Amino acid sequence: MAEHRTQVAIIGAGPAGLLLGQLLHRAGIANVILERQDGAYVLNRIRAGVLEPITVDLLDAAGVGQRMHREGLVHTGIELCFGGARHRIDLHQSTGGKDVTIYGQTELTRDLMGARAAASLSTIYQAHDVALHDFDSATPSVSYTHDGQQHVLRCDFIAGCDGFHGVSRASVPQAALSVYEKVYPFGWLGVLSETPPVAHELIYTNHARGFALCSMRSNTRSRYYVQCSLQDKVEQWSDDAFWDELRARLDPATAEALITGPSIEKSIAPLRSFVAEPMRFGQLFLAGDAAHIVPPTGAKGLNLAASDVHYLSRAFIDYYLEKSNAGIRHYSEACLRRVWKAERFSWWFTSLTHHFPGQGAIDAKLQAAELDYLVHSDAARSVVAENYVGLPVDD
Ligand code: RFL
Ligand code: PHB
Hints:
Layout: E1 2-5, E2 8-11, H1 15-26, E3 31-34, H2 39-43, E4 50-51, H3 53-61, H4 66-71, E5 73-75, E6 77-82, E7 85-90, H5 91-95, E8 100-102, H6 105-118, E9 122-124, E10 128-133, E11 141-146, E12 149-154, E13 157-160, E14 178-193, E15 203-205, E16 212-216, E17 222-228, H7 239-249, H8 252-257, E18 263-277, E19 280-281, E20 284-286, E21 292-293, H9 301-321, H10 326-353, H11 361-376, H12 378-388
Parallel strand pairs: 1-12, 2-3, 2-13, 3-9, 6-15, 13-20
Antiparallel strand pairs: 4-8, 5-8, 6-7, 10-11, 11-12, 14-17, 14-18, 15-16, 16-17, 18-21, 19-20
């Protein structure tokens, strides 16, 4: 058994783990990342695309913001499409100048991996059988196998950044966890294509046939989604069937303007709201999808992972540099206040824009009335804009 030692052992090289590792490194705090997959697999997951200003600031603080500022698209509004027409919500105007940045999770992950490699920081890809030990004591450790050899990594703290299906949350005794969960009765079928986006900004669409979203990764690459049944299989959806369904849900002018092409990725994601409380157990801290999941409608998942990492990096910096336990003690509470508000927004935006199986005529009328209210009331637009660009981390 090979023995190693670090200050913070990070489980998972997704955005949460990589960003935490980079922020700690810049503060002089030693860390090792253990990742189950290989780097190429992590980079091939097509996921988020919308960054809040807080996430952009954190990436700058981590020293990896250059390409994002060069290539990311700054959006000052979003559009809602219903009743056969599009309506714009001006994020800039409603929030006193805030915006969002369109930059794919794949690119952000690539930038973080590059910075980690450039600083020669230790990332163990294909770490198998990762197991967490003694995190209720002052001497936690993580065991794993790599290249057929057994290893143990001794540390002061463990950061569980290993996503919804990871080992960190599963290592906590069930009685110590409160879990809140809602599974939605539909999924999202997503397509990535090398085609120019149909509009300059994102279009969230409510239609009797179901929700649709027009998004993008760049001026030449589009990302589209349609709400689908949980029984649907990706193989049943030809590209033509996808484009026809998307067109059918958009207003006539947008449907007409849509440029289609072969899909370069196609996948179905289920929708879920989930929170596990608390987010700290002794020396183990959960961050990102390991602790909570939101339906993607509000574009909050990656941004919540980033705000958890903001609090967690500060907690460790307080501990090592200021000799203070305050950040550690308040970590879970500080994260959860923001997490629950993003859960609420994502659930509300999902409820407003999706067609629910068994939904009656009155439900559709109530959705239509709320959408109409929303685009015609300054107050309602401000509420959406304030949440969409992200609530503050330090209120
Ligand atoms: P990740 O990205 O799941 O990374 C966890 C990492 O941990 C590894 N791992 C393990 N490593 C070692 N040992 C084990 N036992 C392990 N088990 C797991 C995994 O291999 C993985 O590399 O979690 P993280 O870092 O918390 O990041 C969360 C985000 O990825 C997620 O919230 C977002 O992608 C959600 N999301 C969106 N978020 C946004 O903010 N804006 C968006 O526009 C947005 N769109 C989306 C999304 C998620 C989607 N899907 C498919 C779920 C759109 C979609 C379709
Ligand atoms: C995306 O581009 O993948 C995306 C954008 C906005 C969302 C969800 C996903 O709300």
